[in-house]
Specification:
Blueprint (H helix, E strand, L loop, with lengths): L2 H12 L3 E4 L4 H8 L6 H21 L4 H18 L4 H9 L2 H29 L1 H24 L16 H5 L23 H16 L3 H20 L5 H22 L18 E4 L4
Helix pairs in contact: 3-7, 6-7, 6-9, 6-10, 7-9, 7-11, 9-10, 9-11
């Protein structure tokens, strides 16, 4: 067997297709995007750590009081020019009904967290295939909101100079806001734009409306963000335009998910597919 015979065999072997696993190239990306069954301990840790980080960063943003009050005056003037500056009227009307305004104070303080966590638990249990993508919408929304807090400090209506808004928490001695009363030192009071009460509530509402099977539950999904909008205005914690900012952040969150998954989260499979054996993809060798 001479050198010519050896070279001939080498060329024949090079012409044979070689197995390449799907962990390379686009196969790896496809595996990263594939829905996976969420793990309870990991999700609890992730959500707790994420909220702690969000609160830490949000409250670490310098409280630029002068800029925040100036921005509040500007937004109030813009709303007056647009004919939508009715926050003060809503605030005074609701404040005149004690049981209603106290209920709204507690609504503002509690449902923001309770409903959001409830929807996450429901997704985890009933829609595991859509859980990660839908959760990513929420995380991306909250992440971009932090940028807004840093770049655009904004005082809520109840803190405006020379304004006639009523701080309903202070007046009625309830704990309906982390930025009022004894809790005000624990939260950045000038992080009103965008409103995550709206961003999170619209996320909850859309998720419930898209995935719930019971008609009246789907209707509640739409009512919840609408009622939240009334609450944040009636308690003088936000302007209407803060709510617009929250919706824009949510749109960004959905955009991130669409780019990553190539689909809206609600169109993904409800259940996580059973993991198949790793298949081998045969690629032609070089001649």
């Amino acid at each position: 067997m001479g050198d010519a015979t050896v070279r001939t065999r080498e060329r024949q072997e090079d012409g044979v297709r070689h197995p390449v696993t799907e962990t390379t190239g686009r196969g790896l990306l496809r595996r990263l995007r594939a829905p996976r069954r969420p793990r309870l301990w990991f999700e609890i840790l992730l959500i707790a750590l994420s909220y702690w980080t969000y609160s830490l960063i949000r409250n670490a943003v310098p409280e630029q009081r002068t800029a925040a009050l100036r921005n509040a005056d500007w937004i109030w003037r813009v709303e007056q020019q647009l004919g939508i500056a009715v926050e003060e009227s809503v605030n005074h009307a609701v404040n005149s009904v004690t049981w209603l305004v106290v209920g709204m104070n507690y609504y503002y303080a509690t449902l923001h967290f309770v409903v959001t966590l409830g929807v996450l638990v429901w997704l985890f249990r009933s829609h595991p295939g859509r859980y990660a993508a839908t959760r990513l919408v929420l995380f991306a929304t909250t992440g971009v909101a932090l940028v807004g807090y840093y770049l655009y400090p904004l005082a809520p209506p109840r803190l405006m100079n020379g304004g006639h808004f009523i701080d309903t928490v202070m007046v009625h001695q309830t704990w309906g806001s982390m930025a009022s009363g004894d809790l005000k030192n624990m939260s950045n009071q000038y992080a009103a734009m965008p409103s995550m009460h709206i961003g999170w509530s619209v996320w909850c509402g859309l998720t419930i409306f898209a995935l719930a099977s019971v008609p009246w539950v789907r209707v509640l999904g739409l009512v919840y963000p609408a009622l939240t909008l009334v609450v944040i205005v009636a308690t003088a914690n936000h302007f209407w335009l803060d709510a617009v900012g929250g919706v824009l952040c949510l749109a960004f969150g959905y955009g991130v998910v669409f780019v990553w998954y190539g689909s809206l989260p609600y169109r993904l499979p409800r259940m996580v597919p059973v993991a198949a054996r790793r298949r081998k993809v045969w690629l032609p060798g070089r001649a």
